Task: structure prediction
Amino acid sequence: MTDSALVPRRLAYDNDPARPRFHFGAPTGWLNDPNGLSQWDGTYHLFYQFNPDAPRHANILWGHATSTDLVNWQDRPIALTPDADGPDRDGCWSGVLVDDDGVPTIVYSGHADDVQLPCLAIGDSTLDTWTKDPANPVLSGPPIGTDVTAFRDHCVWREGDTWFQLIGSGFRGIGGAALLYESPDLRSWTYRGPILVGSASDAEPLWTGTMWECVDLFELDGTHILVVSVWDEGDTHYPIYFTGSYADGVFTPQEVRPLDLGLRHFYAPQSFRDESGRRIIMGWMQEGRDDRQTGEAGWSGVLSVARVLSVTPSGRLHHAPVPELTGIRAAHTSVAAQSLTAGQDMVLDAAGAADLELELAVEPGTIVQVDLLRSPDGAEVTSLTIDVDRRTIALDRSRSSLTPTDSTPLGGEIEIEDGALHLRILIDRSALEIFANGTPLAARVYPTRHDATGIRLAGVRGDTLVRRFDFWEMAPAASHSAASLSLTTER
Ligand code: DQQ
Result:
């Protein structure tokens, strides 16, 4: 398929009621991890794992899009494709983009014969054209003498004249691991050892799997954070983060938590520091439909909105959609402040894509429910329950769709201080992102009824003061309009 053939495909999906309008999706086919997230001379760059030929994970190449606001994206030519005789002949897997003294450089995992090895590609000044390094792969395998479960994905940074790289891995029979290398030139690498090794035999406080994908180490608000995507030969996939301190090749963890309560619906995230100093993260919101359903749809996977990370006073990660997202807010409805007791409810119609903000003052013992994507008769509804005493949120997807799709319950702990609860909820057709006092929960839901657009706020137990209840219809982001479709290069 040529790039220009992708253009009508993106437009064709606009009538698909499951296709999100402001969450980034590939023009057609399959999308998984965000890659190479960066800002160059003011422009944001997003690369992503892409199969334009079918909505399944095969023959992966790097799609590319640019933006000035992290919301409206413009498709660019495909950035990396497998070389028939290269170490990436079966796929260009995940990686990052670094600035090598002004030279944009991608470090990615070349995939061939079920093995992944680190490779480099050098970009021109537009970041549209990429040339593979003739020396690829730049490492010939995992460290000698180790027995690893896998070896892929990269986090690369520079300290003075020395480059450092983490590669995601796991020691067989022990647990996941982030392996540290150093290099003077991004090409010759020396192994320094693991910065952290998990335990696959411990389930508490959180099982950390047998392999860590998409490792990401950064410093934020005086704390070091290590994000990894827990992977296992079974069907276990979820991102977690460790807080702690990193020095001299050793990460000393303090706490470990789920990164997003939606688990696999916010998988393989990548973060970067933008030119204004914000730590921005995006993750892959994989489908909750089966292969037959995605095959019929013709596309699979979207990315979360870009989120700004910060650290709360109690040391947890706080996520918030980038403020730029308010730029596509359209028709606004504001509900007057009022109290809500058990048994009372407020019902509104959100008409499709919406951005919802609620500020509640809750008493001890209170339980409130927010129904989303609700048909007037309640036959289809996705319900969020907030339990103040337990400090939990729970998302019930058992009635989200009249067709069989993933309905696993999702939820977990949130922070509530002084009875104040701020809920930000992004409803974008099948993509749902909830932020409860900054704790995120991403999910996919597939309502079938055209009238499943209602919102209902209900008191279940105790008293709630609804201080603020605002929602906005959302305009489609530019990647969904014909004006942005300017793919030019054939492949
Ligand atoms: N996806 C990539 C890998 C990574 C995985 C392949 C995570 O590099 O480990 O598409 O979803």
Remarks:
- The first helix runs from residue 3 to 12.
- Residues 481-491 have pLDDT under 50 and may be disordered.
- The chain has two domains: 3-321, 326-474.
- Residues 326-474 form a domain with the Jelly Rolls fold (CATH 2.60.120.560).
